[in-house]
Amino acid sequence: MKLTVVGCSGSFPSAESACSSYLVEADGFRLLLDMGNGALGELQRHCGLYDLDAIFLSHLHADHCIDMCAYFVARYYRHDGGRCDPIPVYGPEGTEHRLTTAYADTPTASSMSEVFDFHTVKPSTFEVGPFTVHTERVAHPVEAYGIRVEHGGKSLTYSGDTGITPALDELARDTDLFLCEAAFTHGKEDIPDLHLNGREAGETAARAGARRLLLTHIPPWTDPQANLTDARAVYDGPVELATPRVSYDI
After folding, report:
1. CB of 233 within 8 A of CB of 207?
2. Cβ distance 33 to 21 under 8 Å?
3. Of 84, 59, 58, 82, nearest to 71 (Cα)?
4. Which of 208, 206, 180, 183 is nearest to 195 (CA)?
5. What's the whole-number average pLDDT of the chain?
6. What pLDDT shows up at residue 142?
7. 227-232: long-range contacts at Cβ-Cβ below 8 A with a sequence spacing of 24 or more?
8. Could you report the per-residue pLDDT of 66-92, keeping only the tens digit for each?
9. Is-above-0.85 flag for pTM?
C-alpha cells in the first residue's frame, strides 16, 4: 500500500495544507479517506478528478467532508457533457442529506446519489476493492469512525477525529502505520471525547503496539513540534508529523 497525504490541517486549512484527506493506493485502486476544505484541489496533484475508486468519510464535520460538494460539481457537470457513474462513498448515517444540504441547491433532492453511491458505515468489516476494511465508532461529538485498511499482510489505521477510546486501541492493534490525530496540546486543552493531544496519540500507539506513528489533524494555531515531542516521550517507535504531498510506503 501507499499512503499520500493530500491534506492534514485540523479544523481549517493552513497556508501550507488543506484539511484532512489521505489517498490510499494498492493494485491500481485508489481509496480516499476524507475530503476536507481545500482537498479537491490538492488531490489533483496526485490523481485525476475521475481516477478515484472509493471514498470514506470518517464523519460529517466540514473539515473532513465539505469538498465533496465541489466534487459533486465535477462529477455531475462533467466537462465533456457526460455524467460520471456513481462512485462508492462510505460515511455515517445521513451523509447524503448532509452533503445535499451543504450544497444547498442541487438540481433535485436525489442528485447527489446520481454520482455518489452512498453506503452507511457502522462498526463492521467489509471489502473495498482490494482492501479489507474495519471500522469502529470513536469518541467525538458527532457520529465518527476510525478505519483500518488491510492489504497484502500490511495495515494502515486512521483515527479520524476522536478522544481517548478503547475502540481506537483495538483498531490500531499491531498496525504497520497509525495515522492519528493530535489536535490538542498536552497541558492546555482537556476536553473529553473530542480530540487527542500529542501525548495521548503516543500513548494510544504504545498501548496498541503500532509499528509507526504519523501525527495529523494539527490545527494552524497548535505547535506541531510540541505535539511531536510529547508523542516521542511516551512512544518508542518511529513517529513523524504528517506532511502534505508526501507519500509513505506501507
Report:
1. no
2. yes
3. 84
4. 183
5. 97
6. 98
7. 227/182, 227/185, 227/186, 227/197, 227/198, 227/201, 228/198, 229/198, 230/186, 230/197, 230/198, 230/199, 230/202, 231/182, 231/198, 231/199, 231/201, 231/202, 231/205, 232/202
8. 999 999 999 999 988 789 999 999 999
9. yes
